[in-house]
Amino acid sequence: EAGVAQSPRYKIIEKRQSVAFWCNPISGHATLYWYQQILGQGPKLLIQFQNNGVVDDSQLPKDRFSAERLKGVDSTLKIQPAKLEDSAVYLCASSPGQRAGQETQYFGPGTRLLVL
Amino acid sequence: KQEVTQIPAALSVPEGENLVLNCSFTDSAIYNLQWFRQDPGKGLTSLLLIQSSQREQTSGRLNASLDKSSGRSTLYIAASQPGDSATYLCAVRNSGYSTLTFGKGTMLLVSP
Q1: Per-residue pLDDT tens for B96-111?
Q2: Sign of CA dihedral A34, B101, A81, A115
Q3: Which of A6, A24, A29, A103 to mutate against chain B (most B CBs within 10 Å)?
Q4: Which tens digits make up the pLDDT trace of A13-48?
Q5: Is B96 within 8 Å of A41 when comparing Cβ atoms?
């Protein structure tokens, strides 16, 4: 079974530029998550999708971050414009669902973003 | 608001030692607790998941315990090996549908 795929693996941009990350979850997984992990911290949830609907985006800085999962499969996360403090690893995860027994999350390798 | 704390932040041990990683959480009304492993430059791998009704879970040399009333969990690693070197993260879920709240992790180094 293929795991969660993410691209690119690394990205370096200057502040005020825009950047987009892509995630392909495990086939059949209805729930998709985007996390931000700053160096030395645990992952922080940015947004959670159930199929193509948003379940939780309470910690997403909506003035600069956006995410979509149009067909309920792949997802993109965009930052525009980027700030220095956005430097982090962006992790995508998926789970079969949200209910008991389906909630185990499988993580991708992450995208390392450096904003200069 | 749930807060998760992990102690120690870093740990260095010689190969073969048994060790304990600690996790504490402020809101004891959790649904489940999960331990993850993160290798440098990689994503997270789930190690053990303990439901709120359970006291412990075991997988190979790993044993995780949960004391919900005191807001604590421990991850016990027996006979540590250099391949165990990684960052170990604890995460809690407060309800069947809520998201995970992570601690900052314990960075473990096992020396040959």
Answers
A1: 667 889 999 999 999 9
A2: negative
A3: A103
A4: 999 999 999 999 999 999 999 999 999 899 999 999
A5: no
